[in-house]
Design brief:
There is one protein chain. Helix content is 27%, strand content 26%. By secondary structure, it is α+β, with helices and mostly antiparallel strands. The protein has a five-stranded antiparallel beta sheet. It has a four-stranded mixed beta sheet with strand order 1-2-5-3, with helices on one face. The chain has a three-stranded antiparallel beta sheet with strand order 15-16-17. It starts with a strand and ends in a 9-residue tail after the last strand. The structure holds flavin-adenine dinucleotide.
């Protein structure tokens, strides 16, 4: 397995921003993953994993870490009985395709989530009333101390959150699905995709929901819309004119532009609603949002 230096991460994020990783590797097997973790320990580098970068903002200055992109066996998908077994780096679209081909239902909700099985565990990804927690049997978590299977209940999954810690890599995921006619699966997926297209920007570079929905009668999107932020732009990034909880790379955006927009959005939501919005997008690199007060 090759360890590369100074690889730009902008092509590994759906928003298309971000600087280089000091080191980058694509482990294809569990052995290679352990090798990479050992290498990072020797070089005193932190570990970070990228999936499809679909909820990720990488610092423009880059990341002082060994960044892993799981590939090969660690991104493959197979079916055993009613279990869908996906490598942590497997794209949700591939997993859904395999499930459908095997006549297994329950994963359709992921059709609108452009991430990986492992990224979904980290985020407890979900849509349309379902989430990873609802179908996850167990996940193989690997870190510098070794590997262990964790049952869904041990992962602390709740709304867009898991208890996984930096340095832990989800190498494999088992989902428990149920028999469902292929035509029914197709119809559910088509319906969900229609709903998604009607509500969100699907042809723009974004990182999905910027903020988690607060405990409030208004969603984050509705709140930011009420603050007059639809279409608001800083540098090359703009708040989507379609849905105010999305930031689009309108033209050569930098992560700093997105951060500036997020800071402004949080300030306005605080001033108008007294709500402190919490970011859903994950940060990689040395940056944080400014405190509100
Ligand atoms: C158009 C669009 C629509 C979206 N819609 C939804 C939606 O409906 N519901 C929803 O929940 N999300 C949605 N998202 C956000 C995103 O797709 C999900 O959060 C997804 O689960 C992220 O997966 P990823 O593989 O891309 O992770 P990344 O964005 O690459 O990473 C996210 C976090 O997970 C960590 N991570 C990734 N892979 C691993 C791994 N193997 N092991 C350990 N940690 C890992 C990363 O380090 C990072 O902290 C949307 C995004 C876009 C762009």
């Amino acid at each position: 397995m090759k360890i590369e230096e100074r690889i730009s991460l902008s092509r590994y994020t759906t928003i298309g921003t971000g600087g280089p990783a000091s080191a980058f590797a694509r482990p294809e097997t569990l052995n290679e993953l352990h090798e990479a973790l050992g290498w990072a320990r020797e070089h005193e580098l932190a570990i970070a994993t990228v999936g499809l970068g679909s909820n990720l903002l990488v610092a423009d200055d880059g990341v002082e870490a060994l960044v892993l992109k799981l590939a090969g066996e660690l991104a493959a998908v197979r079916v055993e009985g009613e279990l869908l077994i996906a490598g942590g780096g497997a794209a949700n679209a591939v997993a859904l395709h395999r499930a459908r081909a095997a006549g297994l239902g329950g994963f359709e909700f992921a059709c609108a989530i452009p991430g990986t099985a492992g990224g979904g565990v980290w985020m407890n990804a979900g849509a349309y009333g379902s989430d990873w927690a609802g179908i996850l049997e167990r996940a193989l978590v690997v870190d510098a101390d070794g590997e262990h299977w964790q049952a869904a209940a041990e992962l602390g999954l709740r709304y867009r959150h898991s208890d996984l810690r930096n340095g832990q890599v989800v190498a494999q995921v088992e989902f428990r699905l149920e028999q469902r006619p292929v035509e029914e699966i197709r119809a559910i997926v088509a319906d969900l995709q229609r709903q998604r297209k009607a509500a969100q920007p699907t042809n723009k570079r974004t990182y999905g929901s910027v903020f988690k929905n607060p405990d409030h009668e208004l969603s984050a999107g509705r709140m930011l819309e009420a603050c007059g932020l639809k279409g608001f732009r800083i540098g090359g990034a703009q708040i989507s004119p379609r849905h105010a909880n999305f930031i689009e790379n309108a033209d050569g955006a930098r992560s700093a532009d997105a951060i500036a927009l997020m800071t402004e959005a949080r300030r306005r939501a605080w001033d108008r609603f007294g709500v402190e919005l919490e970011h859903e997008v994950q940060f990689l690199g040395d940056f944080e949002l400014l405190p509100l007060e």
